[in-house]
Amino acid sequence: MANSVIPIVDLSPFFRQGDKDGKRKVREVIDETCSRYGFFQIINHGVPLDLMSRALKLSKIFFESSVEEKMNCSPLPGSPFPAGYNRKPNPSYEFAEFLVMLQPGSKFNVFPANHSHLRAVMEDLFDQFVKIGAILESILSESLGLPLSTFQEFNNDRNSDVLTALYYLPATEKEKMGISSHRDVGCITFVLQDEIGGLEVLKDDKWIPVTPKEGALVVNIGIILQVLTNNKYKSPNHRVVRPNGRSRNSFSFFYNISGGKWVEPLPNFTKQIAEKPKYKGFFYSDYLQKRKENKLKRTSGLEDDLGLSHFSLTV
Questions:
Q1: Distance (Å, rounded) from C-alpha 273 to C-alpha 284?
Q2: Rounded Cα distance, 305 and 281, in Å
């Protein structure tokens, strides 16, 4: 473990036999971090470093191609999620272009004909993120003192996972924001960022930069894990600040749950320890709808929870 404001956690003990002490230390660091602000980086995570490098390189080539070429990858009608090329409608506020991919094999995935290698690399990256997602779910379960398979049994449908390649133009004098303050939906988010940086997490009311480390992935606890653990684990506010003079590339993988999933605090964090639940139960799709409604009403660049308060039982 490195002594860093944002902890860097070495997962190698989970890729070799034995080493119970190494695994215990990893769980302790992750448990402490998630209990405070839910953001850390992982190394020796099993995702091939050359794949990560190729993914960043090929996505940059795609985003630097012509607008006409990119628009040929626009989302297909009827897609449950806007798979394909998207760009934010108001670049004066938040400028990001992004290419969204659903589960490999989905009929809604759209890729550029002139960038054939990009599809193969993103499909491979998607599968690798699913693998590390399952490993991290087990680590989180044990860190919380739960049976190893607790979160895997709860979140056993991989049809809602999403991989997104993102591209940010350099900051301007008038605007530096790439993505404004927000908390992620779903269970876990993995971020692969280039060497440029710009990702920041809100910790103790201060914005802390998540400094890129070669070969590392950023891990971010999502709102669903915060609800399941009755606020023991925190889903942090974070943002992206556009860099000066250089563009920024990254990938985000959202390890999600299905819309029909019922979500409520687990009894391990309520009844079994005589704690009152801080949230009433809800279907994930209802939360997403409430979040969407609140986002449309938002008048500032700052986000509180965009829907979670609707299900809160605390004042």
A1: 25
A2: 17
**Residue linked to tokens 């379960």:** 141
Contacts of 94 by beta carbon, 8 Å cutoff, 6+ apart = 88, 177, 178, 179, 180, 301
Pick the closest to residue 312 from 233, 227, 186, 236 (CA basis).
227
Residue range 104-117, pLDDT digits in tens: 999 999 998 888 89
Greatest Cα pair distance, the chain, in angstroms, is 59
Whole-model pTM? 0.93
Residue 119 near residue 125, CB atoms below 8 Å: no
DSSP code at position 121:
H
Q: CA-CA distance, 88 to 97, in Å (whole number)?
A: 7
Who contacts 173 (Cβ-Cβ below 8 Å, separation ≥6)? none
H helices within the chain, ranges in order?
Answer: 20-36, 49-63, 67-71, 116-143, 150-154, 223-228, 284-297
The per-residue pLDDT for range 31-75, each reduced to its tens digit, is 999 999 999 999 999 999 999 999 999 999 999 999 889 999 999
Dig out the tokens for 269 from the structure: 């964090």
